[in-house]
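Extended Data, panel c. Modelled sequence:
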Amino acid sequence: MRLHREGKRTVLPDADELPEVLLDLAVPHEDINELVRLRRVLTRDTDATRLLEECVGELVKDIGEHGHWTRLTELLLARLSEAPAEVGAYFPVYVFVAALPYTRAYHRERDIPADVSRRTLADLGRNIAVHHRRFGGGGLPFPQWLVPHFRGELYQLGRLQFERARLDESTARTLTAAGLDAEPGTPCLNLHIPDYSGPLTPAACDRSLDLARAFFARYFPEERHEVATCHSWLLDPQLKRYLSADSNIVRFQERFRVIREDTEPVDTDPVQFVFGHPDQPVEGLPRGTSVERAVGDHLRAGGHWYLGHGWFPL
């Protein structure tokens, strides 16, 4: 693979190499030929290649450090509109492919196991698959979710993903009130729950947490992660009104202590995660599973869903 920086120039894998790189990243097979074709469009456009270089440079700058997510999210979303129209939402895929050698080099410096690296970076393909389901097309129109993966801040460990994060002021106050020695900026692990990864069983979560405790103690010993946090609609306590006490979601919720309660609804979050497209009419949402019934019936009754914010000691 010849993806590297020559001086200040970013070089993408050639058309023969690119399919193998994409397969390693779990990119859906139906997208590979299109990405190979659009590679020619991208590399023949001087402005587009310059844009690619700038985005890659910003993405991998200070790789491994915290605090760049907001800046890079704004950058990638803003620059996406500057990409060639034909390339469109596929442009961020090339950015992450071009950043891949730097991410892998960082993983090697940290001695991250190859299987953890592979499964973590394969989330690129999962996100493309999610976009197919939600919007019926390929690409990564919301590239911000892959930023921590390619900056060495997030790792897939079993069923869950764990992001190296730091406590915000609200969480630090809550932990201090609970008797912990916590200040804003203290390291923590932020849990993510990816789609297409099997049921969220207690056993699968226990295994992930065991893996995470051992992983971060070994590969990031300078960061003491004493608490786990999670910010998700799956922690909305209203779900307990609809789901049985032994359901996977309720048992997942019970791991957490509340950080704070939101007052701003996020109704499209459960709709897109459960049903696909976030703007589906509420009246027609399916009722095939207990979760589908919970989300749809609550909205049809005039209710709203909120992000839950929780923590527990590691």
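The chain is about 45% helix and 10% strand. This feature is highlighted in the accompanying rendering.
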